[in-house]
Design brief:
By secondary structure, the chain is α/β, with parallel strands linked by helices. The protein has one domain: Rossmann fold. It is built from seven helices and eight strands; from the N terminus they run E-H-H-E-H-E-E-E-H-E-H-E-H-E-H. The strands form two sheets. Strands 3-2-1-6-7-8 form a six-stranded parallel sheet, sandwiched between helices. Helix 6 links the parallel strand 7 and strand 8.
């Protein structure tokens, strides 16, 4: 992965996808260190974090993270989850943020030179192709080292570069040996 100092960089984090990938690899993301790391790679214009929230719960386990990110340099994009009953009569919760992420990437593309997409979702292949046609380079961050791999082959092939999440563990992992060991919530 190569970044240029003068490059305008945007981070787009598919929250549930990144969480699942890191969990599959056995580590937690330190979002302060993630932001600090990519801020050294160019001119960080914006860091978006996408997640769906269960609105009617008294306590949401993701709420402290969402609040911390919101106060510490991330642009939060959230929406309430939808509840439905599947064909077998089971209650399911759905909270897909793909459209929101895709719209934001397309809107930001004229202001960016390099998009870093934290997702392995193959549905984003066409999005990556579209912004590449606008002259924007794309790095996909996910993993092939989990079982099964968390990145779709077609997304990995389309990206200008692929960054293995496990290779970032010492830099952005909570409790890693790079810089300090703070994680979300320590600055509150």
């Amino acid at each position: 992965m190569h970044f240029y100092d003068s490059e305008r960089v945007g981070l787009f984090i598919d929250g549930s996808n990144l969480y699942a990938a890191a969990k599959a690899l056995g580590f937690d993301i330190d979002y302060k260190r993630l932001l600090d790391h990519f801020a050294t790679k160019g001119r960080l214009i914006r860091a978006f974090y996408y997640t769906a929230l269960v609105e009617d719960q008294e306590y949401s386990p993701i709420r402290p993270l969402v609040d911390w990110l919101d106060y510490n340099g991330y642009t939060m994009v959230t929406k309430p989850t939808k509840e439905f009953t599947d064909a077998a009569g089971r209650r399911k919760i759905k909270g897909n943020m793909d459209i929101e992420l895709a719209i934001d990437v397309m809107e930001m593309a004229p202001h960016l030179d390099h998009v870093v997409l934290f997702s392995g979702d193959g549905d984003f292949r066409r999005l990556v192709e579209a912004i590449q046609r606008k002259g924007v380079r794309v790095t996909v961050v996910s993993t092939v080292r989990s079982q099964p791999p968390m990145v779709a082959d077609e997304l990995r092939r389309q990206a200008d570069s692929f960054l293995e999440l496990l290779d970032l563990e010492s830099i952005i992992g909570r409790g890693g040996h790079h810089r300090d060991d703070r994680h979300y919530g320590d600055d509150q």
